[in-house]
Amino acid sequence: MAEAPLPLGWEEATTEKGVHYFIDHVNGVTTFQDPRLVGAVTTPNNKKNKKKKKEKLPKFKRDLYSKSQSVLVRLHQRLQDEGQLQINISRDNLLEDSFNFITSLDVTTLTRRLFIKYEGEEGLDYGGMSREWFLSLSEKILSPDLGLFLRCSTGYYMIDRRSHSRDIEYFRFVGMTIGMALYHGKLFFSYFSLPFYKSLLDKPLELCDIQYEDENLYKNLKKISEAEDISTWDLFFSVSDIDAEGKIVEVPLKPDAPDEAVTNQNKNEFLELVTNYYLHTTDKQMNALKEGLNQLVPIELLKEFEPEELEQLMGGSKDLDLIDFKTNTEYGEPYTDSHPVIKLFWEVLSSLSQDELKAFLQFSTGTNKVPLGGFSHLYGSQGPQKFQIVPKKISGLPTAHSCFNRLELPNYTDKEKLKKELLFAITETKGFGLE
């Protein structure tokens, strides 16, 4: 097969009989013809060609991954700079350095191929450091210390209502960061609440959307909505919230009538005002975020996705599927899927928790997220690159080359030693050496 990367929007796959074919996600077609070899002279008696003629070409299937690839191609057709962009930052000042750098550049420059250079580290970025940078940066953005986002009781993130107007430039920066991640095919650290994605797509928010940010509040509001008589419930047009100092305060929903009681006649107005307070108080911050995002990725283009699809597009798959991982792993000789050390390796991974598995993925690929479409769509320095396990020629701990999704694994004979040293390598190794 050709060694050059496939054109953007193309994917290589294999039939059930192991014959290679190619998927054009933009035009929605499949072909046995390698798009990198169009115009090349082929030999009529080539055995591979004969095998292809006997094999039935799989039909094109439009799924979420295919739709994302089609959108990505249109993004690059709309805005692209063929140059390179080196971002020099300090791990100790990652957020501020990234903010100052990104906000100082024009949008076209941000579409250049990224190269991340950490101060004091010798690593060369072939993709792994960029993935790690997006992950670390998004983690900083979501940190409670920054005060932009709040982790809901449901485990998702929402814009913090206590954030101030002085944070508007940071929200615009967050939008630019999300746009860069989408444009460059990178993933975000965590997931936002469903109302966040709906707001990005300009979809209307309703009372039921509150459940994705506060389940208990939604249950109480639902009781009010469904109750036939609330005349004895002692409710008023105000809500309890937490202010910037962490104190519980009463917020009037009707400033001109804060002590007005909620009755059977006006409860719908009350529910509407409560919904507006919890889901629209941060509209100014959301608009700034959308403004930053729209510079790189037009919101109108994203409207082709449903909110749940956008969640996967930005954050990848939520759980690490070991079967999918193993199916899409390649080996360097003499390792094979039946080699004793490889069997031990997968036994060790099957004994790890989801958090430990994600830490391993971070260690070996530069991100703790599984890309949209699963492990068959892992990216390396030159495009799609499956995870690889190769022998380590010298003694020592397992070594990762995250830019190439490659793990150098010593020839262990003891499972407990393999597990102990693998976990040690995962937890103690930080930063990037020469890859």
TrEMBL record:
Keywords: Repeat, Transferase, Ubl conjugation pathway
Active site: C403
GO cellular component annotations of the record: cytoplasm
UniProt catalytic activity: S-ubiquitinyl-[E2 ubiquitin-conjugating enzyme]-L-cysteine + [acceptor protein]-L-lysine = [E2 ubiquitin-conjugating enzyme]-L-cysteine + N(6)-ubiquitinyl-[acceptor protein]-L-lysine
Residue ranges occupied by any WW domain in the UniProt entry: 4-37
Involved pathway(s): Protein modification; protein ubiquitination
InterPro entries found in the cross-reference section: E3_ubiq-protein_ligase, HECT_dom, Hect_E3_ubiquitin_ligase, WW_dom, WW_dom_sf
A Pfam family the protein falls into: WW
GO biological process: protein ubiquitination; ubiquitin-dependent protein catabolic process
Keyword flag Nucleotidyltransferase: no
Presence of the UniProt keyword Oxidoreductase in the record: no
Its EC number(s): 2.3.2.26
Enzyme class: transferase
Recorded GO MF terms: ubiquitin protein ligase activity
Residues annotated as domain HECT: 106-435
Protein name: HECT-type E3 ubiquitin transferase
Biological source species: Arcella intermedia
